[in-house]
Specification:
This protein is α+β, with helices and mostly antiparallel strands. It is built from four helices and five strands; from the N terminus they run E-E-E-E-E-H-H-H-H. Strand 3 and strand 4 form a beta hairpin. The protein starts with 13 loop residues before the first strand and ends with a helix.
Length: 138
Amino acid sequence: MVQGTFKRQVQVGRVVLVNYGPDAGKLAVIVDIVDHNRALIDGPTTGVARQSFPFRRMVLTPLVLNVPRGLGNKALIKALEKEATVAAWNNSAWAKKLEQRKTRAGLSDFDRFKLLKLKSQRRFAVGSAVAAAKKQSA
């Protein structure tokens, strides 16, 4: 098999992140592929209703469940819990980055000012420690 540049294929059981609409930011699983533009997704644990959804409004994640095509709701919940998919997603760097963006977007002006001051203090402490280490080694 030739290894291509695409690492994430559209397949049944692929966990996707919805990036548009009322369910934006939620996880769902591809249950069936409708055609080249749409898939049937379901997110019983995240609140995404079973629906036909266009590929351009979802992002494929590296997580894949080993489930058959057209899987029912209860069996999908069991598969998600068995493989701890939501926990695996929450531990990923991608999810942490999205959570950090959400937190930063909710900061007030004063919170952003405090963050600026804390970063400045950290930068000063690291810089002085590096300078001391350089001076000691030389």
